[in-house]
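call fold(seq) -> tokens
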Amino acid sequence: MEYITEAGVLDTTAPKILCCQCGAVIDPNPANMCVSCLRTQVDITEGIPKQATLYFCKGCERYLQPPGEWITCALESRELLSLCLKKLKGLNRVKLVDAGFVWTEPHSKRIKVKLTVHGEVLGGTMLQQVFVVEYIVNNQMCDDCHRSEAQDYWRALVQVRQKCENKKTFYYLEQLILKHKAHEHTLGIKPIHEGLDFFYATEGHARKMIDFLTTALPCRYQHSKKLISHDIHSNIYNYKFTYSVEIVPLSKDSVVCLPKKLTHQLGGISPICLVYRVTNSVHIIDPSTAQIAELSSTNFWRYPFNSICNPKQLAEYIIMDVDIIRDKDRKAFPGQGAISNKHTIADVWVVRASELGMTENTIHTRTHLGHILKPGDSVLGYTLADSNVNDPNLEKLDATKIPDIILVKKYYGDRSSRKRLRNWKLKHLAEESTHINTEANDYHEFLDDLEEDPAYRQNVNIFRDPSKDIPVDVDDIEDLTMPRITLDEMLDDLQIMDEEMADAS
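ret:
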């Protein structure tokens, strides 16, 4: 309709009507009601529950996402908001405009979500409404925590064994597990004689541990399963799986006698060799020629052998004289394998430290440590001439080809002084499941190996010890030749303090 105003202007605007409830002037709409009256008459949130329940597991701090999945959600996080919205059944009948949390006390077991929805009512009228949904958090134990509390909670077991007197390989394995977080899905770790037991809830997690062990250390494994229960109606079988892993019975600084067939495969290396490193393969070196070889897990189990001397039998010797063998003279050595560029062959004359000053007879031997030894140094080695070794491979060798002494490594002084100057530390597994004895000789030998071999500690996380003072002056260091780990190789240990402790400090 067109109206002529008093000023003579043509008014073409839409006419106004009165609200049928309160009589207010409004624009025409199918309901003939204003927005205020429309909200009192129509509720677009009808059918949407204003209360719901969330199930929370106190053991693993996860929420239940129906039908049977447990997810980790922080308070007032996007994941928790998504979980809350999925619990509302009638939310698909309206358009969700906005959603957010309303603050509640964290220990109140209540979570409130403020929702803004948009819906169409009464023949095309659009209405927007805001309401709050309250969620009650109930405690419920998840299946994983329920199995852990039961007596037979595990479904897969990984048994790691090493038939060796020295445990340095296990200390190295523990650091690899911590660095790569291979124990993330482990339910428990139980130390037993000659090894460890890792318990898992599923077979898949145990297989991941097996894959990690086979790539970290030379080992082999066997698989078995035991039937626990069988449902004949649904044809469901319940098994317990066991993996038995055997690590090579060798450790760093051990002396081995190789089988004859294996020496030919390794380039004609001497049967008497020294194990100078154990990583994903066994690294051996001939002390008399510096010929090196890597022994894979497959080759070892094809031609198995044991160590004839272990680090517990090391004796201290004093270097009396050193004669370096030049490269032109090394060509006369037998063997076609690779020669180490990090070692130097030398003829040395030594005297046992306990007999120093009591005898003038020196013992001659050939060693690969010519690059670090000088007259007057202390060195650790094995006395094969006085050892009673029962090994079938050693008995087949000519007695003239067996060296009297094999020097292993340089001796840098008393272990207590090295321990006092050590300003770094290593992390261990959980205290209740750890097998580490930090006062054992094997453990301190492992720490010494980390200091002396930079390549050996590349796969180990080393942390700075805040309780030890770091020498800032050269005069503060007692022995400059003693191997040390630099600050660049250390990590800062993360320490989370409570607010009260931080304020007090």
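Residues 1-5, 472-477, 496-505 have pLDDT under 50 and may be disordered.
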